[in-house]
Amino acid sequence: MIADQTFTTKRAAEAWEHQQKEALHSGDFVSPQQTRTPVLEVAAEFLAARAGQIAPHTWRTDRDNLAALPPRFAARPIGSVSEADVLGLLTDLLSMRAHSTVSRMRTTLSALWTWAVRERWTPTNPVRGVRMPSGSVQAHDHGPLTGPALAMMLDAQRARSPRDAHITEWLSLTGLRWSELRALRVADLQDVPFPAVQVLRAQSDGYAEKAPKSARGRRTVPLVARAHEIAQAWASGKGPAAYLATSATGLQLRGSYFRRAVAWTKTSPDHTIHDLRHYAASSWLRQGIPINQVAAWLGDDPRTVLKVYAHVLGEAQDIEALRRLNASLPSHSPDNASGDDATGEDKPERARKSWSDQEKLGGDGGI
Question: What pLDDT does residue 332 have?
Fold first, then answer.
């Protein structure tokens, strides 16, 4: 006897026996004893088996996600978890965590169950048929990083560490990821045919150097005058192989030290370092840089840029529509029922001038 189970009716027992025999002959048999193993124990086996086979960053993400599972879910027998259980877990997590964080949890769970099915811990993967819930998403109430917010952030950081505030400013102008900035070398800085940096590698804190996370691998990012000025100051007195941006002691940048130097939680409480990348991309699009060019500078697929920044691309149409409305509608101001003021200038013309003045002042709200 390979497996046993108790049933209330003979018919149910015979059906189960038939199912087990078919699975045994087809090679899909899973021992009921295996399916009773707690999720947490299978997760430990999963992590041990994957160590050294996947990228260290991915392995650490899986480890942290599995460690964050609610104790009651982690104690469940792996074979007892259904699609409804997975959906309930994701929905509950969305009430406490960001959508992107929960989405990564789903990815980890799917990988765990895919491995568990292959290793005969359970016969099915309940995660595969569950999509990310659309409701109860914890949204960031601070919204996108705006120009005024960035200016306030930089002023506060300069008061604490002018040197490190340059890092924040440079990321907002170049759109580089933190891992890409800390891996830049002086030799990656170019002046001809135009000021730019070559993004050839990336290195997250605590991990080995690798190729950048980019749709096209290496890429060239042009530097506006201010970004080029900062980069030249960083490169001054260094050899070609030296890190371009470094700490105050000349060592490679580390996120924890940088955040402490600029008191990030106080000077930038509503935003992450990655928000600086979004700010740069949105600024480029608002200035009319084509999507394909922005995607190339970011190292992203144009379709991703179109999806993420669709709201920015739609602003131009709204601005033009509002300009036309202001230009065509008559004024109903009680100060001048006739529609003419003391200077003889009609209201629509003044509205056109007012909107033009706003455009000249750079009315670029936020990302």
Answer: 66
What phi-psi label fits residue 198: left (phi over 0), alpha (psi between -120 and 50 degrees) or beta? beta
The predicted pLDDT at position 20 comes to: 54
Q: Is the pLDDT of residue 263 over 70?
A: yes
Strand order in the sheet with 196-199: 189-190, 196-199, 219-222
71-102 core/surface letters (b: 16 or more CB in 10 A; e: else): eebbebbbbebeeeebbebbeebbeebebeeb
Same domain, 198 and 289: yes
Q: Is residue 178 part of a domain?
A: yes
**For position 55, what pLDDT does the model report?**
85
Q: Is a pLDDT exceeding 70 seen at residue 320?
A: yes
Please say if the pLDDT value at position 365 is more than 60: no
Q: Name the average pLDDT for the chain.
A: 84
Co-location of 321 and 236 in the same domain = no
pTM for the whole thing?
0.66
Helices (H), ranges, the chain: 10-26, 32-35, 39-50, 56-67, 71-74, 83-94, 99-118, 147-160, 162-174, 178-181, 225-235, 255-262, 264-267, 274-286, 291-298, 302-308, 310-313, 315-328, 347-360
Are 265 and 156 members of one domain?
Answer: yes
List own/partner pairs for 278-281 with CB under 8 A and 24 or more apart. 278/144, 278/145, 278/308, 278/367, 279/144, 279/145, 279/150, 279/172, 279/366, 279/367, 280/171, 280/172, 280/173, 280/174, 280/175, 281/175, 281/305, 281/308, 281/309, 281/367
Instruction: For residue 46, give its domain range.
Output: 31-118
Window from 31-40, 99-108, 174-183, 358-367 with minimum mean pLDDT: 358-367
Q: CATH code at 86?
A: 1.10.150
